[in-house]
Amino acid sequence: MEDMELEGNEEQNERINENSDSNDADSNQAVSRVSEEELKQFQESIGHLKSEMAKMLIGQDELIDLLVVSLFTGGHVLLEGVPGIAKTMAAKLLAKTIGTKFSRIQFTPDLMPADVIGTTIFNMGNSLFEFQKGPIFSNLVLIDEINRAPAKTQAALIEVMEEKQVTVDGKTHIMEKPFFIIATQNPIEQEGTYQLPEAQLDRFVFRIKLNYPSLEDEISILTRYESDFNQEMSDIDIVLKPKEIASVFSMIEKVYIKKDVLNYIAEIVNSTRSSHHIYLGASPRASLWLLKVSKAYAALNGRYFVTPDDIRFLAPYVLNHRIILSHEKELEGAEAEQVIKELIETIDVPR
């Protein structure tokens, strides 16, 4: 049996060396521990999930990809955009397709931490104090207009977002897996809003800025609603169940990343700390998230290995809320995403 395995490995190495043009891809596949069957099943499931979400979410393919990547790496997402561009619908559709429990919390100036995580109440029946869970205890939680609640309420999310647990009266309550938060905020309303502190922003893997749809997409939206004003989600199929998501986590961890590409991540993040255009650079947590999401994005695109293009695409979404621009750049009205892209262009791309 061992001889047969050795012969099989030798044949595989010979096939890799025969084609120099595809040498990198083949060698990456050889090193990767992801089986072809695993990747095929993942591709089929994700393709089905994306097509289900696209039934109602028109012209938002990139958003769907980023939500899926975040879900399968255990991260959380901050959606920023003007009202009416389907931020809430995106969260509801994702919850529907993965068959999980869904809850929505509307953040307001008078919302208290106990309204989010829950509180201890006295049970008259057994004369004991019992913890009453709040709406945060769900699989997928939509926090609408997160910047409308004061810092005290926002701070209630810091532990649960990072450690997937809530501590009340000295007792820790573990969240059920999967646990995924999608928060929204409106960038144009200033009155009655509170800026999110850097410690909380750092808990989000992505900040995704949503724009208005194109003319063609808006026509498609109107056409869809032309004869049916009340579009329902009853036609959306459940594609994945919570237990199946755990196996996807394990598969993504096995996606291969070359040492040079790993170093490329570190160089990009490190450059944010030395640039004179940036007052505060990104922390090592940004590097770790860029590593995780690049593996998920590679699998999403049917690859066993991470490429530099994966890093270049994802870096602005991972870093845009983790840096503070210099005073000069802010006066110029520069966007964080553009500064990050300019930094990336100064770094040699691994071959």
Question: Can you describe this structure?
Answer:
This protein is of the alpha/beta class and 351 residues long. The protein folds into two domains: 33-253, P-loop containing nucleotide triphosphate hydrolases (Rossmann fold, 3-Layer(aba) Sandwich), CATH 3.40.50; 255-351, Orthogonal Bundle (Helicase, Ruva Protein, domain 3), CATH 1.10.8. The protein has 16 helices and eleven strands. The strands form four sheets. A five-stranded parallel β-sheet has the order 2-5-8-1-9. A two-stranded antiparallel ribbon has the order 3-4. A two-stranded antiparallel sheet has the order 6-7. Strand 6 (165-168) and strand 7 form a beta hairpin. Helix 1 (2-18) runs antiparallel to helix 2, helix 12 (259-274) crosses helix 13 and helix 13 packs across helix 14 (308-319). Mean pLDDT is 86; it is low at 1-23.
H and E string: HHHHEHEHEEEHHEEEHEHHHEHHEHH
CATH class of the largest domain: Alpha Beta
Question: What is the assigned CATH homologous superfamily of the largest domain?
Answer: P-loop containing nucleotide triphosphate hydrolases
Into how many domains do the coordinates divide?
2
- Measured by DSSP, the beta-strand proportion falls in 5-15%
Number of strands: 11
Model regions low in confidence, pLDDT < 50 over at least 5 residues: 1-23
> Rg, please?
23 Å
Helix content: 40-55%
Average pLDDT, rounded to a whole number, is: 86
CATH fold descriptor of the largest domain: Rossmann fold
Summarize the structure.
With 351 residues, the protein is an alpha/beta fold. It is 49% helix and 14% strand. A hairpin with a 2-residue loop joins strand 6 (165-168) and strand 7 (171-174).
